[in-house]
Design a protein that fits this description.
homodimer, mainly alpha, 11 helices, 74% helix
Chain lengths: 201, 201
Amino acid sequence: MPRTGRRPGAGGTREQILAAARSHFAEAGFDNATIRGIAAAAGVDPALVLHYYGSKEGVFRAAVNVPIEPGEFLPRLLEEGLDGLGERLVRFFVTTWDSPAGSPLLGVIRSVVTSETAAALLRDFVSREILSRLAEGLELDRPQLRASLAASQLIGLAMLRYVVRVEPLASAPPADVAAWLGPTLQRYFTDPAAGAAADPT
Amino acid sequence: MPRTGRRPGAGGTREQILAAARSHFAEAGFDNATIRGIAAAAGVDPALVLHYYGSKEGVFRAAVNVPIEPGEFLPRLLEEGLDGLGERLVRFFVTTWDSPAGSPLLGVIRSVVTSETAAALLRDFVSREILSRLAEGLELDRPQLRASLAASQLIGLAMLRYVVRVEPLASAPPADVAAWLGPTLQRYFTDPAAGAAADPT
């Protein structure tokens, strides 16, 4: 795929491309962003960007610095159907945070709350890569709403368990956490009321 | 209460006291921290600390920079009893964030995820001022766990609605948000299963 004869550059080039990608994605939005635009901003050949990151999605994921691949794990979680999905998702989420992938995730949260650019990138990432996939997989009414409700419970768990570390949540076994939070996500996915509008106050 | 004849100093003195208080609380923990210790660290008279902040709790709240007074709002939310508490809490939470108090809260979240000291302070604050009061008010088994589960859903809502601003959560009316999330908190407060341990994986 790479057409230049260049050898992979030093880490500096990669970092330069990612910095350019962050600005470009934040300004243009994912849909309008192009490999060519990123390369121009970084002052490198477009082929080099593709060589390092394979695709626009690849650069995006690296720019957002999310160490997981929703296109991989979501289909696996969804293939067993809606039944028990809430608990499977919570369990996967906690296991991932407890694994070596956890520290970079902490970095993602840090950058999101301190940088508007990072927040915009993650908003795009969450909407495109996670919520839309869930929405497709679930075939429910108001899937985007249901998925974002589920995401709110998961991100809050991450904040209290891994960032602020409030007990007893911080040291509870993953299975307990899944048992407590699983039904919440399940309700967001399946309860007809969760999709309906509330009393108009 | 202040015994010195000193006039309230410039903002610099207050900031100096708060900076000293943050270090002192983070090192000593709330219970062992003293007005005397904070004053010594700030190089001021203990009476001045009391003059500005009234009590150890007062300095603490100012140091944590939380613009709300749990001792005030929690009793009000709890006095109507457990029935509908989840929805009342969510509604109060969203209304507070949507009010002028919201921007400082964003600052609290920022400092918590970027500073271990701030995280330790907030952990103390949340445990002492919010979870314990809820726990007392609720008179349920495992109140600390139930309250921290509820807090995890609320903080996640804040992250998605106010920090990352994911739609449709970001612009949903408070009443809708309360209708969606209220039952979650209610379940954490009341469901016997939420307090029980899960299958031992």
